[in-house]
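Morning!

This is the sequence you dropped in the shared folder:
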Amino acid sequence: MKSKNILFVLALSLGMFAASCSSDDNEGETIVPLAGKYNLSKTGTIENGNEVLVDAPQNQSGCSRDYLELKLSNAAVIGDYSGENCALVETTGTYVRSHNDLTITIGNASTTSDIMNLTNKELKIKDKATGIITVYTR
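The structure's back. C-alpha cells below.
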C-alpha cells in the first residue's frame, strides 16, 4: 500500500513539473539582448508570401557598411558611410523595445518595426508602415 502511495505521489509530482515547464514560454519574444552594433546587410519586402532580400543598396561600394547601434542607455546611433572619402555621418536618437516591437526615434520622426528575428548574429526587422524588411548582422 505504501509503495502505491509513493508511486502516485511521484507520478503526480512529475506531471506537475512537466506542466509548469510548458507554461514558462516567453510568448514568442526572444531573450537575446537587443543592445549591440549591427551592420546593415540586406533589405527587401515580402512578395507573394515570400521574402525577397537583396544586398542593401544604402551601403556605398568601397566603404564600410552602414550600421545601427543600440546602446544599453536606449540611445540609437545610425552610422552612414558615404562620399568619395567614405565619410561617416552619425545620427543619434533613442529606441524603445516593447515585446517584439522596436521604435526608433530620430528628432521628431519615429519608426516602429516588428522584430522578425533576433539572434546573437542577426537582427531582422519589418517596418510596420512600409513593410520594408531590413537585415542587420553583428
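Headline: The longest helix spans residues 2-22.

More detail when I'm at my desk.
O.
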